[in-house]
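Continuing the series of single-chain predictions for the mutant panel. This is the parent chain; the variants come on the following pages.
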Amino acid sequence: MDWIEITISTNTEGADIVSEALLRQGAVGTQIIDRADVPDPSKPNGFWELIDPKMIDEMPEDVQVKAWFESVEALRGLENCLKALPELTGMDLGTLAVSQQGVQEQDWSECWKQYYKPFRAGQHLVIKPSWENWNAAPGDLIIELDPGMAFGTGTHETTAMCVEMIEKHYHGGKVLDVGTGSGILAIAAARLGADSVLGVDIDPMAVRVAQENVEKNGLSREIDIRQGDLVAGLDNVQCQFAVANILADVIVLLAAPLKAHLTANATFVCSGILKEREQDVVDVLTRNGYQLFDRMQKGDWVALAAHLA
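Parent structure:
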């Protein structure tokens, strides 16, 4: 079978937004190619097992989001969708220039693998695709995650900060992952000892991908993945730790209703917050009785950790 490959030029801030928009338009898979996701090989920092400088040189200057569609009909409305994104998000998403080509199925199934290698997130968690080997050190906790159709592979700053925050601040209890995407944060929590994790996402494709990743990691008993809109319908769910790697506007909407699902002194970790929107999130959290106790920043993105007073 031949596929239609669409490439959108954007920037680091817009990559995940464009990727999600393409998936909602009917893409069967997406790939983000961003130089910012690759650690500088001249400054070793322990993230990747192997970094080939030539690979970085071959990457495009602009951030590119590739998507694959089964038919021309699936592309209807794509142009209008892309035009609306800057206004809907209030963000500079780059040129959003579009290119198109046909691609053989076997080419698609291999093309994104060249940019995805095992890497360490935090002190003990290692994220690796199934086709790569990793010489585990004592204490390493392996998350196996194939990014072909996934949301959030851990390389983006927002996901990486959430993983580090979970490792740093999770000390037991039930975990709620709002906007679970690929399930990477739910899986990280389970690898760190959580035996009851609930991941929720509004997107049915994300739910399917997350369930597949949970099964791949042998964590079906520990992790429950459900389709849902934020915390709507979770009437009987109470947790000691919640995490949300979503946009600032959604965190603003989530802060108040989430409180009904948090026990006393529960921890809430949130990311996906652009630096320029940080104060908006801080103000809403404070008004709703959260006490901030940790902050991380990578690039233009911020992650926050708070206790519910």
